[in-house]
């Protein structure tokens, strides 16, 4: 286990899964500059670990993440424009690093996710929430906007939902979060770990390089022209088919046995 000032990183299942836990429960895991730096550094390190099949992101205590820390927001009120820009870029860099992490990231949403906390949900690949979780883009109530998180959120929930939820700042339930594509699965509190573990087992049963290639496809092909997508996707599948992993996966399927990446689990 590696402990940063405001987060911990733990490994499990023979170091194939990492769990990143936000550790500021006294302020509902709201992030300040140190937490953003901790998350950035942790995900940079995890991104370089080719053994990982997945990362779980969650919060300690009753909440997932309440967005920006109120004390830090008070400080930014006296910042210059240049200082505010630097602060916003830090958040942008953190979100980009998590979003671009090569292996899948699971959001284990154990409670409320507000403001920037929804940004964290949006940069995860799989989002599983407890049924009592509440969400909301509360920025507008403070005279600001969910600006830095917006590229990731709009990509997940679409323009029409963003136009309504960004401007009203209304709180919404997990069921609505699922309906608009922010959350994939909703479970009772006592079933959260089982649901997350089920997702983990699915990741572990998949080829590690295929996992990463599939995530890259999901993130990129929708933004490509036809010709770009044609070339990229053909090269991707051709490369995977002739790779050691692709050959092993096909052979295991034909021989009705487990592939090597499961045998060495």
TrEMBL record:
Q: Which Gene3D superfamilies match?
A: 2-enoyl-CoA Hydratase, Chain A, domain 1, Lyase 2-enoyl-coa Hydratase, Chain A, domain 2
Instruction: Spell out the InterPro entries in the cross-references.
Output: ClpP/crotonase-like_dom_sf, Enoyl-CoA_hydra/iso, Enoyl-CoA_hydra_C, Enoyl-CoA_Hydratase/Isomerase
Any one GO molecular function term: catalytic activity
Going by the entry's taxonomy, the superkingdom of the source organism is recorded as Bacteria
One Pfam entry for this protein is ECH_1
Could you say which protein family the record assigns here?
Answer: Belongs to the enoyl-CoA hydratase/isomerase family.
- Recorded protein name is Enoyl-CoA hydratase
Species name for this entry?
A: Reticulibacter mediterranei
């Amino acid at each position: 286990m590696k402990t940063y000032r405001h987060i911990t990183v733990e490994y499990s299942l023979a170091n194939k899964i990492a769990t990143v836990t936000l550790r500021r429960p006294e302020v509902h895991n709201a992030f300040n500059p140190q937490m953003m730096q901790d998350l950035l550094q942790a995900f940079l390190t995890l991104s370089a670990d080719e053994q990982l099949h997945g990362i779980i992101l969650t919060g300690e205590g009753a909440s997932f993440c309440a967005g920006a820390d109120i004390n830090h927001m008070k400080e930014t009120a006296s910042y210059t424009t240049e200082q505010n820009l630097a602060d916003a870029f830090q958040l942008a860099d953190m979100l980009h690093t998590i979003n671009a992490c090569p292996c899948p990231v699971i959001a284990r949403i154990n409670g409320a996710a507000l403001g920037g906390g929804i940004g964290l949900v949006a940069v995860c690949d799989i989002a599983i929430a407890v049924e009592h979780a509440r969400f909301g883009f509360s920025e507008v109530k403070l005279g600001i906007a969910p600006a830095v998180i917006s590229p990731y959120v709009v990509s997940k929930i679409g323009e029409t939902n963003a136009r309504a939820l960004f401007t009203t700042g209304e709180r919404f339930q997990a069921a609505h979060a699922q309906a608009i594509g922010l959350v994939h699965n909703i479970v009772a509190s006592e079933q959260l770990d089982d649901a997350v573990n089920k997702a983990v087992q699915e990741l572990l049963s998949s080829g590690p390089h295929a996992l990463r290639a599939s995530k890259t496809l999901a993130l990129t092909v929708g933004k490509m022209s036809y010709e770009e997508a044609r070339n990229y996707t053909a090269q991707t599948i051709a490369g995977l088919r002739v790779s050691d992993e692709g050959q092993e996966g096909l052979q295991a399927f034909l021989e009705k046995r487990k592939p090597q990446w499961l045998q060495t689990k």
